[in-house]
Amino acid sequence: MNCDATNDEATAPEALTADDIKALRTADDLCFDQLTGEIGQIRAIRRARRNHGTVFSDLDDATRTIRVETGVTRWEGRPDPRTAFVLLSGSDEVWRTIASLLRVGDRLRLDWRMDGGSNGYVKHAMGDGLPDCGEPPRPMHFSGLHVDELRLVVERPATPHRKSTVGNGKVRRLHFTVETLVCAENAARMIRIPLR
Question: Which residues, at least 6 apart from 10, have a Cβ–Cβ distance to it below 8 Å?
Answer without folding.
Answer: 35, 36, 39, 67
